[in-house]
Batch of 2 targets.
Target 1
Amino acid sequence: MIENLIRFCSLWMLCGAENEASSARRQVMPARETEAIILKTFPLGEADRLVSFFGRDSGRLRGVAAGARRIKNRYGSTLEVLSHVQLRYVERETRDLVRIQECELLESFHEAQSNYSLSTGLAMISEIVERTLPEQEVAEPMFRLLLLAAREVERRGSWELPLAYFAFWAVKLGGYLPPLERCAVCGNAFGDEPGFHFGQAAGLSCARCGKPGMRPLGKRGRELARYFLASRLDEIELPEEIRKALAELRETTLDWIEHHLERRLQTREFLETP
Ligand SMILES: [Zn+2]
């Protein structure tokens, strides 16, 4: 019994959940407001949710939505993955977690959120933001990219192009996009030949410098990358025959993201290819 209580208390502390009695004694901080995109939520205790969100004016933050697990709660569907919301929250002096006061839905991606295959694409996009962006760092271009990607998964009813475009631009905005036309080892130009990649390398290798297990990024995939650099996602229409190049480019950029993070993306294996 006592053991359980201790475990419960330490879990409570770990999660940074609120201790109402002591917080009431602390100075009240002014409420802040930001446009935000919900990245992920976790159950917290019996009634609350821990919410990870990316605010246009706040950067990535985590907060507690009190009562969000109750059947009747004021959050409704606002806390779904990648929901676009207006969020009001209070910072607290001594904790990393903010307290969410209000969350109003600006834009819902209901089709994508309720479709299993599409939701695997949303989850991957959300994980990339979660893992690559430091907390509390405002990143306006990334915010716009994320919103555009979520809208396009919803509008197209497919995650393939939005995810590939998003992942590619996440690498570009992160500042670790390697040269696409030359071998990172020997410097030779690829020309019409593919470059090769895997999760243990930051760039592309030629066939001679490549290692076993590397996968190709062909000429069309590299052309597609240059096209992404010059185009807005909502203006791109790709012919069906470019799907293979699109998948190659997606896999390449996911490898670069994993190499940059020095860890695997958990959602990658759950991506449901249509
Ligand atoms: Zn080489």
Note: The domain at 2-108 is CATH 2.40.50.140 (OB fold (Dihydrolipoamide Acetyltransferase, E2P)).
Target 2
Amino acid sequence: MPFDVVDGLAGALIALVGAHALGSPDSIELAGPMGTLLMSLSVTDRSGGLYWLDSARGDTMGFIGFAHGASGCALALAELGHAICDPTFLEAAERACQYERSWYDEVAGNWRDVRSIQERGAVENPILGPDVHRYDWCYGAPGIALSRTGLLLDSDRVSTEVADDAHIGFTKAKSAGESFPRLVHDVCVCHGAAGIAEILSFAPEDPAVSDHPRTARTLTHHALLSHHDDLTWPGGYGLMLGAAGVGMAALRRVDPTIVSPLLLLPHRYSQTKPGEHGIRVLPPRR
Ligand SMILES: [Zn+2]
């Protein structure tokens, strides 16, 4: 059974928790067993971290990131744990983040791309390709930042490491946005300019060092201008890869109360007052 956000249980779980927040009482009754099933599909590493194997994509190592990796499961489990006040799911979410931290590259200041490591073979061969660090929603640091917002809901309980992960990931989103197209080359919401614009719209704003709304508008403008003559975008018409996602990103630059295609949790927006920007993220503590 697919476990991930895009094709499987983690995505369904996030939708159910969102539906519960919108007033659907039955959805949370379905979500509990689904969370238990998601946990049962995980694998435990030597340090107690949790990961999942995406067999549909040939994953034999445990990919990281939001779309098909441990990040998406961490968000789903944390949101469920928070919604039903069950520490079991919150602890599982922490352990998924712990697993991903084992792939963090201190020198690069970013997570290594496990997919590319697997492609290079069990014994990593730098001749077959350099280490890859990604700056997108689907597999990269910006998506990892977004996933940590589930655990950040509980500011009394969140670990230093999770807060640091979020800070690092949002910083990478800022780098990708301000240097576009150097670090991300596409324009879609999944792994391109529109996605970085979306993630920056959730990043905590520090007026002294950044202007996320302006960067998000510039990125969305780049995405809008990349269509072909017949108004198709490079990835076609779809939400994650194509025109629909770029269109939603453009609408959200005008009206931020429209639900983002990358964080489908409407109740999160109710915590933001008009004029406020971004999800609250604790400052780094080291
Ligand atoms: Zn992608």
Note: Residues 7 and 235 are 19 Å apart (CA to CA).
